[in-house]
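Honest question from a wet-lab person: if I give you the sequences of every part of a complex, can you actually get the arrangement of the whole thing, not just the pieces? Trying it with mine:
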Amino acid sequence: MNREGGSVLKILKSRRMQSFLHDPSALAGSAILVVFLLAAIFAGALAPMDPYDLTKVDLANFLLAPAWMEGGDAAFPLGTDDQGRGILSTIIYGLRTSLIVGLTVVTISSLVGIILGMLGAYYGGLLDAFIMRAADTVFAFSTTLLAVLLLGVFETRGLFTVIFAICIADWVRYARTIRGSVLEIKENAYVVAARASGASDRRILFRHILPNALPPIFVVMAVDMAVVIMLEATLSFLGVGVPLTEPSLGMMIAIGKNYIYAGMWWMVVFPGATLIGIVVGINLFADWLREELNPKL
Amino acid sequence: MATYIVRRLFQGIIVLLAVSMICFFLFRFTGDPVLMLAGKYATQEEREQVRQAYGLDRPMHEQYLRFISGALRGDFGRSYVSQIDALDMILERFPATFELALVAISISFTLGVGLGVIVSIRPNGAVSRAIMAGSLFGISIPTFLIGILLVMGFSVYLNLLPPFGRGDTVQVGFWRTGLLTVSGWQHIILPALTLSGYQLAVLLRLTRAGMRETLSEEYIKTAWAKGLSPAKVILKHALRNVMIPVVTITGLSFGELIAFSIVTETIFQWPGMGNLLLTSIFETDQPIIVTYIMLAAFIILSINILVDLLYAVLNPRIRYE
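Yes, you can. This is the full assembly:
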């Protein structure tokens, strides 16, 4: 057996991997995520049509029922919306927006939160007081309320604005979590020893403290991903999120809401089920990660 | 204790000032109030008149001081759209939002804590597993989707409950209530369920986690050994300790409740503050938005301070220095 095969086997046999493979809900959650992720990446090839290419959308196909129902069309397996866009295609493109917003926000706000929280906890004093007061205030307002209010104030609408507004509200989770860990870790004997041996602050922070403070952060990241995806959908549903010209599950549901009294349930149910599916998938995985990394959390 | 309260109040005032400053400058740099006040088709002269009449030609700090001294007297200006006093307009909507939040919190607190206790007593029973699976869905469905699904189920298909509005209301003094009429209660059920959904799931999970930890403690074993009734052990000895984080989280997530009330009110066209806020955002009616933000900040900060004090009552070991 070559070296690469050996290391793959080693990973598969490791304790953590074994616990993952023996947890049916973690496996199910990850399976959902992988399917959705692949669908979003290969949206162009997978979707029957590009619902945001105006030359391909025909208004004549508006409000078609799913293909298996009366009045359905085989070209639109899950029916169409009021603009003649195929629901299946719109969902696949909307999924892409959800995942882009989720991944970007989690990356940016975790970086900002980790750095600010770590610096505050390590150096203490005025810096810490200022960062934590700001964090407390943002936390009290709640991510959702702050994002709605910020987007209400901003003049421009777009994917970038949405990501920016959510990040301003979201870094706090990470700052608070890492601060707690760093305060505890920096009193440990090995940190004191490192300082006594003349290590620089930077070396102590990034080599000695950060690696030990990260596990709880991974759990927060997983949970946060679900929260951010729901938040983007909520903002777009309210009409303060991504503009009409961009795909979003929340916006699809907002459009579909106008037609539920006419019995046209598919414009709400299919995008809604997709949204629930992706969030349940992430939460199942997050539950496993929490048990695995920090049983006390 | 007294010094602690004074310090918290002082901090609260500073935060309110900071919020007002951010609000003020954000609005001055995004969008031109003169354009809003005078209208798009006003001549240069008319615009100049408006600028002077509203003091918009004065330096920034002077404008801010005017804004703050007005705010302290409850004067946040008039709505650009309806020309009605902004604070009056929002306060008129307050009872509707308050009643909705009150019913929602009651539902999520009773059901959340109740189900949490049931689940913790028999963690591996079929009922508990079903409840936990349900709670996973509870935290995985965004509020707006819960609302729409409830409308589809109970209004469109079953035709049991009204899908929008507040129903008949009764004026009691300055308060217009919907909780004294049958139609009012019929109208509040769906929105309140929607608003309670997320918090219910969170409280359930929190209660379960707390109970599981507490039930394995030594003093609980002692209580069982003494031959106390299960009701007494669980409700009096165990649940009491679990209530501390539950109450804290309920209080601290008040901002979330306000945020989700915006969503709920939009879906059910509930005539509350959140609904007004969203309309004002689309009409760029700045005085209303600013007043809403300041009022929300005030309510949230007050609740946070109250929770801190309640914390000390629930757990006598906590002493604020």
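Two things worth pointing out. The two ends of chain A are 41 Å apart (CA to CA). The mean pLDDT of chain A is 82.
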